[in-house]
Amino acid sequence: ATVAAASIVAKVTRDRLMVEADQRFPEYGFARHKGYATPEHLAALDRWGPCPLHRRTFAGVWRQGELFVLEAD
Q1: Of 45, 53, 54, 57, which is least surrounded by CB within 10 A?
Q2: Vertex 39, ends 52 and 34: CA angle to 5°?
Q3: Buried/exposed code over 13-32 (b: 16+ C-beta within 10 A; e: otherwise)
Q4: CB-based contacts of 30: which residues, under 8 Å, 6+ apart?
Q5: Quick one: 38 exposed, middle or buried, by C-beta within 10 A (0-12, 13-18, 19+)?
Q6: Is 47 helix (H, G, I), strand (E, B) or coil?
Q7: Would you place residue 70 in the very low, low, confident or very high pLDDT band (cuts 50, 70, 90)?
């Protein structure tokens, strides 16, 4: 039960963070897809490239054997 509760807390926390991220980077639609690799999210990556929140190991950021280089804020 403890592991299940922790999983729920983690998901709710992540969802809240993604809604906040959507305010900072609205072009990615984080409030709708919560950062998962949906067609909408992948299309935003194709159009805008990764933002500072994207992990460089995220499959949508890793394209055709090349890694997008992220600049620090």
Answers
A1: 57
A2: 50
A3: eeeeebeebbeeeeebbbee
A4: 18, 19, 21, 22, 53
A5: middle
A6: helix
A7: very low
Between CA 6 and CA 12 the distance in angstroms is: 10
Place of tokens 């394209």: 63
**Distance in angstroms (rounded) separating the CA atoms of residues 40 and 68:** 19
Where does the chain show beta strands of DSSP type E? 62-63, 66-67
Write out pLDDT tens, residues 15-45: 999 999 999 999 999 999 999 989 999 899 9
The model carries a pTM of 0.71
- Give residue limits of the domains in the chain: 2-67
